[in-house]
């Protein structure tokens, strides 16, 4: 972090609000997710420990060994978290995220939403408990096995807020997750200006659902098949219709707008490729479609931040891993809320957030110091002087 940004973060308006922010996060999780207490440790103590694990990139085994801090032992922690219910996590995670997203969104307004997928490497064995949750993929970090999660984001003036997260399961199609995301958006009273999807969701089933529901969407073309390649190579053809599974009983027609992609290779030559976007429900130019879809790429930075605050674990239990994933996405949301509340440029007109004034790393450090101070005596939240 640059020195000028570090100095700004250390003297920021957030100073002195760390404890209240920890309490707000812990109690929001406790409201929507049930964890049974164990011995002298309450459910809020276990949640506070989980948040501390995320902020300091600890595992349940390592956090209890932090000197002079009274976190529960690994055995006690697992005994408490074994009470987590998968169905509750799946049903209530969107309600939890809404605790920190409602101030950005207004019911009845139109927003740009994005759906993407993130993979967490898994190095253990497949057992009946987790077999449905482990998916294959391209090798990453020396493994081809992953716990994968689909997330729903909303973008507001370059601020990305998570609204829901679901695990990828072999027994469920990705279309079923998209349907649930659309239900969440509609239940909250929001409208979809456009839905941005990665080419990993390129399928006739998903296109059929989105078109039947009248949902405007953009997705990169997944180039395969001789006919599609020939159409993309026709320079005079700017837009065209293409039918997926043309010879099957359920063909699906999509609209494609093509463009020429150029990049400079390492040897200095220019490489050209014909690419395209699938689009629906939009009367936009190619420039507008490309510009709108480019906003989705910022999700990658959100995933990197989320990985920074993901608790370490080697457990095979998909429920505990799902809980850790929810907590990591939530912390990213809380940082966005803090930026909105404390780091807005003082000016008339639209809200402008200066994220350089309070970097994510500074947020992590300040929050961890608050939890460490709490754990130096006892873990009960009632020790905070601000809480009456």
From TrEMBL:
GO terms for biological process: DNA transposition. Signal peptide: none annotated. Keywords: Membrane, Transmembrane, Transmembrane helix. Pfam families: DDE_Tnp_1 (PF01609). This is ISH3 family transposase. InterPro entries: Transposase_11. It comes from the Archaea. The chain crosses the membrane at residues 319-339. Residues 112-254 form the Transposase IS4-like domain. GO terms for molecular function: DNA binding; transposase activity.
């Amino acid at each position: 972090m640059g020195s000028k940004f570090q100095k700004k973060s250390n003297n920021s308006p957030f100073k002195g609000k760390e404890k209240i922010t920890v309490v707000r996060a812990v109690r929001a999780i406790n409201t929507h997710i049930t964890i049974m207490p164990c011995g002298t440790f309450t459910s809020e103590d276990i949640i506070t420990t989980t948040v501390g694990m995320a902020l300091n990139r600890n595992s349940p085994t390592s956090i209890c060994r932090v000197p002079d801090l009274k976190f529960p032992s690994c055995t006690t922690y697992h005994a408490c978290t074994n009470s987590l219910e998968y169905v509750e996590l799946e049903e209530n995670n969107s309600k939890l995220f809404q605790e920190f997203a409602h101030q950005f969104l207004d019911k009845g307004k139109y927003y740009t939403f994005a759906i993407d997928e993130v993979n967490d490497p898994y190095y253990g064995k497949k057992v009946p408990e987790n077999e449905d949750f482990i998916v294959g993929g391209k090798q990453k970090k020396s493994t081809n096995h992953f716990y994968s999660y689909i997330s729903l984001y909303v973008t507001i003036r370059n601020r990305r807020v998570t609204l829901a997260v679901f695990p990828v399961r072999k027994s469920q199609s990705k279309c079923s997750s998209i349907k649930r995301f659309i239900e969440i958006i509609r239940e909250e009273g929001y409208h979809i200006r456009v839905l941005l999807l990665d080419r990993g969701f390129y399928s006739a089933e998903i296109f059929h659902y989105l078109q039947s529901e009248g949902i405007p969407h953009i997705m990169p073309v997944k180039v395969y098949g001789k006919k599609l390649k020939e159409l993309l190579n026709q320079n005079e053809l700017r837009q065209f219709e293409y039918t997926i599974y043309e010879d099957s009983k359920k063909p699906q027609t999509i609209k494609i707008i093509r463009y020429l992609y150029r990049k400079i290779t390492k040897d200095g030559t220019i490489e050209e490729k014909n690419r395209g976007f699938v689009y629906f429900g939009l009367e936009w130019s190619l420039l507008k479609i490309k510009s709108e879809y480019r906003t989705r790429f910022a999700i990658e930075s959100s995933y990197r931040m989320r990985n920074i605050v993901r608790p370490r674990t080697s457990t095979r239990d998909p429920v505990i891993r799902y809980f850790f994933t929810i907590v990591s996405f939530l912390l990213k949301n809380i940082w966005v809320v803090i930026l909105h509340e404390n780091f807005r440029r003082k000016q008339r007109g639209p809200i402008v957030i200066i994220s350089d004034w309070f970097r994510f790393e500074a947020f992590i450090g300040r929050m961890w110091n608050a939890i460490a101070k709490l754990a130096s005596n006892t873990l009960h939240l009632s020790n905070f002087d601000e809480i009456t």
